[in-house]
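tool=predict chain=A
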Amino acid sequence: MRVIALLLTLLTATPAFAVLPGERLADPRLEERARALSQDLRCMVCQNQSIDDSDAPLARDLRVLVRERLTAGDSDRQVVDFLVSRYGEFVLLRPRFGWHTAVLWGAPALFLIGGVGYLLMAARRRRSSPAAGPAPLTDEEKAKLAVIVGADQPGRT
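tool=predict ok
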């Protein structure tokens, strides 16, 4: 019985969005554009949430601002550019690619290539090194060993 209740709860659960009914636009196309933009913009208070998911007052103000700009006729690009000019690129959850963000975008690829290169070099070194055990004893070492072993045996002095 508990399993059925849990399944029903999970099936009826919907993601909680912070967009209030009063913020929604009457035009469904504009509202869809506003929601898409809001999901790509960072809440400056929460920093790990989009303004679409955040309950912070600043996030609400940004959602309203996005909707106002769209209603005024701005394109999606113009809305994003306006917010970036006002808050900086930090407002974008996915930063734009540019010279100042090249390290951010390129570092994972460089680390991956470096790691694969290191593994290939280590495998090549392992194959080329002899797999033989320790070097054989020289005649001098054998003589010293015979003296040591002979001294340990009873009846010999």
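DSSP finds six helices and no strands in the chain. Helices lie at 2-12, 28-39, 57-71, 76-87, 102-128, 139-152.
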